[in-house]
Amino acid sequence: MEQAIIAGGCFWCTEAVFKDVIGVTEVESGYIGGDKADPTYKEVCTGTTGHAEGIRVTFDPAAINLPEIYDVFLGTHDPTQLNRQGGDVGTQYRSAIFPLSSAQGEEAEAAIGRWNAENGKMAVTTIEGLVGDAQSKPWYPAEDYHQEYWEGEGQRNPYCQAVIPPKIMKLRKSFQKYVKA
């Protein structure tokens, strides 16, 4: 199994997409990229901690490889929006990739380059440090009630009902071969 850490706006939305991707065995919502140790959701929502709402994806590279994970990520949110996704505004909603190795960093650069070339636009997705390096920022799992949010509370949340189904439809339309049966 391998892991990747990505941030593409609201982690509830990104988590819901990746729960439907083949080869993905676990998706954990959390916070990364900030300066405060053990941040809470309320603190991250202020935009003052420097963290992004992200997900840590555990996947089987025999079923889906890292470049494909990055392609699905870039193709199911708007990587051209700086510090926002739709109505969610602030640095905590930035589009970012947090590589776990230098090879993942190279794959992230290649994926952003592919996305730019295929879409004729420039993604503002950042590649932020190598997780685990001295200058990197640690991963903090979000509170339990954020995990698997769409499968539970999200089904009753009007925000989620408005935002998540279009992202899942985009996954199913644009990345059909990566969708779980």
UniProtKB/TrEMBL annotation:
Keywords: Oxidoreductase. It catalyses: L-methionyl-[protein] + [thioredoxin]-disulfide + H2O = L-methionyl-(S)-S-oxide-[protein] + [thioredoxin]-dithiol; [thioredoxin]-disulfide + L-methionine + H2O = L-methionine (S)-S-oxide + [thioredoxin]-dithiol. Signal peptide: none annotated. This is Peptide methionine sulfoxide reductase MsrA. It comes from Erythrobacter crassostreae. Its EC number is 1.8.4.11. Belongs to the MsrA Met sulfoxide reductase family. Residues 3-160 form the Peptide methionine sulphoxide reductase MsrA domain.
